[in-house]
Batch of 2 targets.
Target 1
Amino acid sequence: MNNITLIKKLSPSIFGLIIICFFMPFVNISCAGGGAVTLTGLQLVTGTDIGESDSHSHGHSRDSFGRSQSESVSPQPLVIAVLICGILGLVLSFPRNLEISIIPALIGVIGVILLLFFKYQVDNAILEEGEGMLHAQYGIGFWLTFIFIIIAIILNVFLFFQSKKQLEDEVIDSNTSK
């Protein structure tokens, strides 16, 4: 098995790891008063209610009568788009034709841009709405997703340039054999 075949098999695996990262903590929102909420990538994709069922959860607020109130986190379009990029990258990494490996690389670039926009969006929302009381920390799922997308981009760009090199070598070989 040559190196190109090994790398070609790695590309779908990396995109698979990206999808698995959505089950890990993506963002942790903490309050200066002590409460904290950790959201996984999947919760950001589907939306979730915070503090509804757990009376000991720090992720809910209380009204003036001491009753817990649930806060809703709506599905985040940027995170949904990143997950879609991961799924598309996984599916498009399987074809044997190395020339189209640029497509998963481009999908990865889009995924990185969307992930950075999500981070920017969360940071701005925390600044505007938190009034200095809220703080966002990005979890292992977020950072591993970012790193794995970068690795997927590099692998697929390498495969694309290797396919170009193989085509050039074939052209040179066919010209020298004439």
Target 2
Amino acid sequence: MASQVWRDLKASVRGLPGLDISESERRIDSPGGGMIAVRSAHNPDNLRGEGLDLAVLDEAAYMDSRVFPEIVRPMLATNRGSALLLSTPFGRNWFWQLFQRGCDPQFHNQWQSFHFPTSSNPYIEPEELEDIRHSTSRRVWLAEYQAAFTDDTGQVFRGIRGAVGAGANPQPRPDHRYVAGVDWGREGDYTAIAIIDIDDKRMVALDRFNRVGWSLQRGRLRSICDRWEPQQIWAEANSFGSPNIEALQQEGLPMRSFTTTSKSKSPLIESLALAIERKFIGLLDHPVLLAELVSYTMQRLPDGGYRYSAPSGMNDDTVMATALAWHGVEKSGPLFGFA
């Protein structure tokens, strides 16, 4: 981010006489003694230095909480300088606390707060925003596009009961396509297998079991697939998943690998959350699945991402199997809500 700001700054002053531009320090000195520099807050203590007249902290909410009160503000105090803190909301952290000061008349002689949702940007078409709103979960829409402060932790899946589809066909239909999702487990965890009708966007089957050897687990998956004949079977490849996937591929099953990492899990879960919220998917009225969806939580991480998981002592096997199956549905074509 600092590099991009530096490039834009140099472009904006190009052609002005008498400027001394230092690439190594990302600093511009003017003939009259003024100076402007671009710094990264990645290592906060590297920001320490001489007094400032103005400091602009871009994406301030994502900076270490020490940056402004312990490092930048003392540098401003020397010159009675000002600060402009810009950011996408990042939960109710220190940036939110300062924002509240600007909303309080008691502090108006020192602080002012401004709120600009994406819709206030004249360069973004309303139609584009409306399309984004329909294809984005409520949580992401509020934080990233409405500039709204939301809690750091909370429930991931909303509208669960409304997404439970009535009348799901328990029998395979020869004119319909199916996809499966598999989350492996052995002792403490469960193996879960979810089947979704690609054409109806409805779950049609869910199996869950544990304390079964790998050979029996593969046999149970084959039995379900013999009945539903899924076009693809998306299975988690982590750890003991890869050997099982390879063994089933050798038997001719249409296995697809999904490696779960902190980077890949976020869009996988967010996609299922959006599908449930928008009723793109019809869920089975399965007590374990519904309980796992209700209890599934997220926690915001310091780097701006999220950690998705079941609470301590609970499982998320049916959630992951359903998310993998829905991933397969998305790979199969455009999405529509179910009736």
